[in-house]
Amino acid sequence: MFRKILSPFARMFEFQARTHYRAERHSMALTIGIILAAGVGGFVEIAPLFTIDETVEAAPDMRLYTPLEQAGRDIYIREGCYACHSQMIRTLQDEVDRYGPYSLAVESQYDHPMLWGSKRTGPDLARVGEKFSDEWQVQHLINPRAVVPESVMPQYAFLLENELDVESLPARLHALRRVGVPYTEDQIDNAAIDARGQARPETEAADGVFQRFGDDTNVRFFDGRRDRVTEMDALVAYLQILGGLTDLPSQTRSLEGD
Amino acid sequence: MLQRLTIAERQLALAISIAIILAGLLMAAAGSGDPMGPHGAIVMFAGAIVFLAVLRVIQDPEPLENRAENYYDDPTRVGLLISLGWAVIGMGMGVWVAAQLAWPDLRFDAAWSSFGRIRPVHTSGVIFGFGGNALIATSFHVMQRTSRARLAGHVAPWFVLLGFNLFCVIAASGYLMGVTQSKEYAEPEWYADLWLVVVWVIYFVLYIRTLARRNEPHIYVANWYYLAFILVVAVLHIVNNLAVPASFAGAKSYSAFAGVQDAMTQWWYGHNAVAFFLTAGFLGMLYYFLPKRAERPIYSYRLSILSFWGITFFYIWAGSHHLHYTALPQWVQTLGMTFSVMLLVPSWASAGNALMTLNGAWHKVRDDATLRFMMVAAVFYGLSTFEGSFMAVRAVNSLSHYTDWTVGHVHAGAMGWVALITFGSIYAVVPTLWQRETMYSWKLVEWHFWLALAGTVIYVFAMWNSGITQGLMWRTYTESGTLTYSFTDTLVAMHPYYVARAAGGALFLAGAILAAINVYLTIRNVPQKRTEGDYPTPSEATEPAVPVAE
C-alpha cells in the first residue's frame, strides 16, 4: 500500500529528473527554470498584501510623524537601534502583559522602512512613548548605566552636542510623500521651521506645529536644552510618540475583553 | 599579472577606471557635507589605484601566451586573498561586537563604534566580504574546470571582483558613518545598491558566456547552484532595495514599501539571502570541491536534482516565518511555516548526498583536515537546516524569536556550514591555483580545524542556553498571575553566555588568522608543481561525445 501512495510522487519525480536531464544542457533553460521556480513563492506571498484590504486596518485617527519625529526616526536608524530593539508586540499573552496591546499593521502604515526588528537585546519599544519622562530618556541615552545599572546599551551622549540638521527635512518629507506618506505641501515647505518649533514651546514656530500637525502634538524642550535644537531633541521626540500614532490598538484590546 | 591582458583590454580597463574616478568626483562634489562626500573620495581612490596599476603596464608588449591552452586564474587568486582579508576583518568585528554585549564600555565612547553601527560591519564583512568574495572566486574556478573552457573575457572578471569589493568597502565605511537603510543584510544605501546591480549584471553575463563556451554537453551541478545564486540574488536585491532618495546629493533614502508589506519584502529578501547567498552558492562549492578532494563521484545525480529544485522552489516561501505572531496576516505566516518544514526534504537530500559521497573515502576524512572541513560543513548544514525548520514552527518560534536562539542558529549555519566549507575549499584550491605541491603546513590546517570546530560549538551552545533561558524567563508568571522577571533580570542572566560567545568567536577568529598565515606561507615558500590535466580540453579528447546514459 505504501508503494501505491508513493507511486504518483515517484512518477512526478521521474518526470522532473528527465526534464532536468534535458534542461541542464542549455544554460538558458536552467536560467528560465530557476526564475520561474523562485518567482512563484514571492509573488504569491507579497503581491496580495498590497491588494487585500483587510491586511491593514483602518484607523481614521492615524497621524503622521512630525518633521522632528521623522528626524528622530532617521537618527534611530542611523545609530542602528533596530538591531537590539524590536517595535512589534506579538499576539502572545506575556508580550501584551509586558509591553501593552499587540501591534497592529496600521501602526507602521507610514513607516518607510518598518522597524519591527528581529532581536530583543533590549526591550520592545513599540509602546515606549510617554512611559518615561523626557528627562529619563535623555539621561538614559547619555549614560544608560547611570539609570539602569545592568544595561548593556551603548552611550549616546554625543547626540546632545550635535545640532540637528533641519535643512534637509523638506527634501526628506518630500521623498516620503513620493513613497506614499500623505504630507501636505504646507507641511513639507515648513518642515525645517516646524522641526525647530516643536522643540521650542511657546514660540510662534510652536504654534505653527499645532496648526499643521494637530493640537495633540508634543511640543516640549525634549532634551532640556533651551539654547538649540539637538539630535537628542529629535530622538526623544520620536521615542515619545512610539505607540501614540493611533488609539486603535487599545480599543481593539478592550473590545476583545468584553 | 596585468601583462596578461592584451593592449586593447588594458585600454578598456583604463577607460573604466577613468569613468569610476569621474563618478567618484561627482559624488564627492555633490555630496560634500554628507556621508556621500567621503564615499565619493573612496570611489575616486579605488578608481585611481586601478588606473595607476593599469597605466604601469600599458606600454608593455602584447602577451605571447595562447589563451585557449590555459584557464584564467588571476582574478580567482586575488579574490581568494581578498576573501581571507575580509574574513579576518569581519570576524574580528564580530568578536568586538560580541564583547560589547558582555562589556558595554568596550566601545570607547566614539560615535562610530557603537554596537548598532559596527554590527552591520560584522554581518556584511563576513557575508559579503568573506563569503561573497569566496563565492565569486570559486565560481570563476569551478565554472572553468567543469566547462573545460577559459573564462569568457578578461576585463569582466576583474570588473566583477573589484566592483563587488568597492560595494563592500562603501557599505562597511558607510555603516561607521551612520549610512544605513536599516534593512537587515541589505543595509547599504541607494547608490551602493545601484552599483551592485551593474556589477551583478556583468557577473551574470560573464557566467552565461563562459557556460556557452563549455566543452561538455551537460552543465555540472555546482554550476546550477552558482547560477541560482547569481540570478535570484539579483531579483531579491533589486526588489528589496527599491527606494526614493531624499536627495541625489545625499545618502539618505526612503524605502518604497512601508509597514507590513515592507516587513514581508524584507524577510522575503532576508531569508533568501540565506537561501541563495549562504546556501545555494556554497552548495556549488560543496558539489565541486568535496567530490574532487575525496576523489569519489557524487553519490546520486537524482538526489542532486531533487534537492536543487526543492531548494529553489521551497526556500522563497519561507521568509514569513520570521514574522510569526506579528501583524502580518496569518495566512502568510502559515504558508511560511509549511514551506519551511517541507524545506527539510531537499536540505537533507543535499547534506545526505554530500555525506554519502564520502563512502569509500572515510579514511581520507580521518587523515585529511581539508576534507574534514567539508564533511563537518555538510553535517552542520544538515543540523542547522533541521533546526531552521524546527524554529519555523509557530509554537517553537514563539519562544525562540527575538532571542539569542536565532543568533545561535544563524551562526551554526554561518560558522559551521558556510565558513567551514569555504575554508575547506580554500585549502583544496590554493595549491592548484598557485601550482604548489601542497599547503605550507598541514598542522596549521589541523589546528584551524579544531579551533573552528571548538569555536562554533562553544558559540552555538552559549546561544542555545541564553536564548532558551531568556525566552522562558520572558514568559514566566508568578502564582498571582504577574510576570516574574523584569527585562533587566533576563539581561543579567545573559552575561555568562555573552562572555562564552565572545570566547567562542575569538577561537574561530584565531583559526581564520591561521588560515591567512598558512596561505601566505604556501605562496611564498612551497616549491612549484604544476597540477596535471588542469587546462581546457575539448570534450572529444576525454570521453565519448554522447553520454552512455542516452
From TrEMBL, chain B:
Residue ranges of the region described as Disordered: 531-550
Pathway the protein takes part in: Energy metabolism; oxidative phosphorylation
Assigned keywords, A-Z: Cell membrane, Copper, Electron transport, Heme, Iron, Membrane, Metal-binding, Oxidoreductase, Respiratory chain, Translocase, Transmembrane, Transmembrane helix, Transport
Boundaries of every Cytochrome oxidase subunit I profile domain copy: 39-550
SUPFAM superfamilies: Cytochrome c oxidase subunit I-like (SSF81442)
Domain of life: Bacteria
Keyword Oxidoreductase included in the entry's annotation: yes
One annotated GO molecular function: oxidoreductase activity
Record-linked CDD domains: cbb3_Oxidase_I
EC number assigned by the record: 7.1.1.9
Its membrane topology: Multi-pass membrane protein
Cofactor: heme b; Cu(2+)
Main location class: membrane
Catalytic activity: 4 Fe(II)-[cytochrome c] + O2 + 8 H(+)(in) = 4 Fe(III)-[cytochrome c] + 2 H2O + 4 H(+)(out)
Residue ranges crossing the lipid bilayer per the database entry: 12-30, 36-58, 78-103, 123-143, 155-178, 190-212, 224-248, 268-289, 301-318, 338-361, 373-394, 414-435, 447-464, 498-521
InterPro entries given in the database record: Cyt_c_oxase-like_su1_dom, Cyt_c_oxase-like_su1_sf, Cyt_C_Oxase_1, Cyt_c_Oxase_su1_BS, Cyt_c_oxidase_cbb3_su1
Location(s), subcellular: Cell membrane
Family (UniProt): Belongs to the heme-copper respiratory oxidase family.
PANTHER family: CYTOCHROME C OXIDASE SUBUNIT 1, CYTOCHROME C OXIDASE SUBUNIT 1 HOMOLOG, BACTEROID
NCBIfam families xrefs: ccoN (TIGR00780)
UniProt protein name: cytochrome-c oxidase
Gene name of this polypeptide: ccoN
